[in-house]
Amino acid sequence: MSTTPNQPEKVQSDAKPAYPSPDQPNKEEEEEGECGLCLYMKAGGCKDAFIDWDNCAKEAEDKNEDFVEKCSQVTARLMQCMNAHSNYYYPILMSEKHAEEQAVIELEKEKQDSSANASPYESNQK
């Protein structure tokens, strides 16, 4: 009688992977034409906050409303959530931080340029 070495049983799991696999799109999340960023955002812990933000952005665009005014609260909630899940959203947060830093640099440059180009009359009127 021959015996085979004990091999661990393969256990099937219903658990979803932590990150979406690029070669196996998640059918539940996938919508025709949905952007990669949207899929990424929905795969993390801020899915609901992102969906709320996305819906607000679409509504503002459809109704020709001011996005910043209309969606400031949902944007703040999304950012809070992303910060709370920064281990997953780190690349997006760093990109946002870099863009913000660049905007500040550009504003300072414009401010310096406008000060240098101001006429003596304008500078005395301030």
Write up what this structure looks like.
The chain has 126 residues and is mostly helical. The chain has a domain at 47-115. The chain has helices spanning 36-43, 47-62, 67-84, 86-117, 120-125. The protein is extended. The model is unreliable at 2-25 (pLDDT under 50).
Topology:
Layout: H1 36-43, H2 47-62, H3 67-84, H4 86-117, H5 120-125
Main sheet attributes: strand count, strand direction, barrel closure? none
Q: What is the terminal-to-terminal distance?
A: 101 Å
Average pLDDT taken over every residue: 78
Order of helices and strands: HHHHH
Fraction of helical residues: 55-70%
The radius of gyration is 25 Å
Oligomer: single chain
The gross shape turns out to be extended
Which stretches of 5+ consecutive residues score pLDDT under 50?
A: 2-25
Beta-strand share of residues: under 5%
Alpha-beta content class: mainly alpha
Number of helices: 5
DSSP strand tally: 0
Biased composition (Polar residues): 1-10, 114-126
Region (Disordered): 1-32, 104-126
Biased composition (Basic and acidic residues): 104-113
Domain GCK: 33-107
